[in-house]
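Example S7 (structure tokens).
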């Protein structure tokens, strides 16, 4: 690492417990939102696959 890389790392001050809790809650919210989106997509795909299966049986 170069000297300017060390300087930028040392400049970060430790965060307060309140700020750490806020950061953790925001991350948790983002993870939950992604999981919800993935589940909705999974259900949409499952529904479409059932429709395809039903359509192929009626032919």
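Recovered sequence:
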């Amino acid at each position: 690492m170069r000297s300017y890389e060390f300087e930028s790392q040392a400049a970060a001050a430790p965060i307060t417990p309140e700020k750490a809790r806020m950061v953790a809650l925001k991350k948790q919210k983002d993870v939950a939102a992604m999981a919800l989106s993935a589940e909705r997509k999974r259900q949409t795909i499952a529904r479409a696959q059932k429709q395809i299966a039903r359509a192929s049986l009626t032919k």
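Notes on this example. The longest helix spans residues 17-58.
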